[in-house]
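Researcher: I'm preparing a figure for a lab meeting and need a structural model of a single chain. I don't have an experimental structure, so a prediction will have to do for now. The sequence is pasted below. Please return the structure as tokens so I can convert it later.
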Amino acid sequence: MNSENFLVDYFSQYMTLSEEEVNIIKSEDIIREYKKGDILLREGQLAKECFLVLKGCVKRYYLDDGEEKIVEFYTENDPISPVSYITKEPSQYNISCIEPSIISTGTEERTQRFLQKFPRFVPIFIKIGESLTAEKQVFLDEVKNLSPEVRYQKLLETKPDLINRVPQYMIASYLGIQPESLSRIRKRLWSDT
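Model: Understood. Here is the structure written out token by token.
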């Protein structure tokens, strides 16, 4: 599949696209292919783009005394709007690819130009943004008050594919626990089933 088709498929989930819209999307040159380990944004850099993961897996993390602390994972259809992109201040964290990834890149100018040309996309952009914001807030609220075991179970419910795609030490970092603790949790949950 051509990389551009991933973005067409993404928008097609929300609406039927005209041939003109498909051709414009394909001609925008906003799709990039990244290798495992490629960095999209470094701590201290100013983010000039936002991203949409079309295929692959990406992590957002910061370094604490040289140790990686993972804040978020992004997989297919997840948008990434770095805080630095919004605030125009240097990034507090890094964003890099865990897997080879196909990512759509965006800027405010490009998005405005696209929405002026195709105003019927405006409600979709708003709807996507609102639903993702709500999902993230619910997850963050739950995570603050839950034990690591329950957080792991929530991760299994919300993003089960991550368990096989991401190394366990990264999952442990994301949950805020040591890999050994995650191992014990997994054994306990496995013996309960």
